[in-house]
Amino acid sequence: MTDTNRDRTIGRKVVANISLSLDGRTTGPGGEYDMGWIAPHALTDVSRAHLIKLTVGATTVLLGRKNYQGFSSYWPAVAGDEHADPRDREFSRWLNEVDKVVFSRTRAALDWSNARLATADPASTVQELRTEGGGDILVLASASIIRALLDTGELDRLSITLCPEIVGGGARLFGDGSAGSSWSLTESTPTGSGAICLTYGRQAA
To answer: What is the pTM (predicted TM-score) of this model?
Structure first.
């Protein structure tokens, strides 16, 4: 069972980062890869700086299968791309080197450096990671993992880039039946695109 009364002032923190539309979507009506509406808001100076800030102190990344496939097909080469934004190159170098834990029922092997398959569900994996040495545990845009950790009380911070878009359909991060919880706003930073980078900390039960 999850210890919901854990002292969250000590030990490794679990931080989730995701972009949401105004109507609470993580994808558009075109399906799971309909996320072009996010791009203009993810490529601003403020959004890039916000992402880099999340990586400071984080030593483990959690990814779902789909995000692993997307990230591993794009990010590894950015580190050596002299035409890429310097912050993207910095993020790529960090992502190549960081410990990556991937949740997948279909993949038998991973070909990205420092990536390994999870052998348990997200909550159990996080509970085990908390007992190990290291920095923050960062969930990058994997909605299913974020929902699982929210429902089991294993998420400490929630970073949302709220995009000024109403996409009218697609997957939602939050659905009916999710476990309730209370959060405090710790940071709010507007971007040049009209998006807002929001950071919330979980309140003690």
So the answer is: 0.92
